[in-house]
Amino acid sequence: MRFFSCKTVVLAAALVMSLQSADVVAASKQQASPSLQKVSLLGGRLVFRLPKEYVKSPMPEIDDKAKAAGVTGSLYMNKAAKRVVIITETRLDAGQKVSSNDKATLDGIIAATVEQQKASYQNFKQLSEKKMVRRGLGVRQLDISGSVDGGKVLSTTVTAAAGKRTAMVNVISLEKDGKAHGELVKAITDNKK
Questions:
Q1: Are the CB atoms for 90 and 165 separated by under 8 Å?
Q2: pLDDT digits (tens, 9 = 90+) for 111-147
Q3: Are 38 and 51 in contact (CB under 8 A)?
Q4: What's the whole-model pTM score?
């Protein structure tokens, strides 16, 4: 499985820290009538919806070589909320095929994610790790806090694997927005079609 560099995570966290707050008024008007965009991963096994104010853009790190290796992904940014969602899906190593709740695979992904995030964030602190099963799919959630350029952020990674692929969703928010961060993560982990 391909993990993205610390640079991608730090860049996303820095984006959260530097977003302008001028769009807050416009975003609050949009929130009055929320419209959702569906995100489907692992062939429809992991499904969630993001509000339309999350603007999708490509990830520069997913170049032609990564695409040829089966890596897909997008970065969704909500400027008003100062929140970033990074979504990636990739093949498991060496043609490996797993069940929809493979403990060893999920444990390995979470352990590697912890190490990557320790290198990505200053003042790294692991807050929790959750194991759940949603519609037969094993899902792991890793919550951490840390800082980038002196600004404090929350980062939650949700991961699952099935067949020959794994999916990862990383939500990065300002630490002070813990409630909204948690609500978005819950919408992702509920895995409702």
A1: yes
A2: 999 999 999 899 999 999 999 999 899 999 999 999 9
A3: no
A4: 0.84
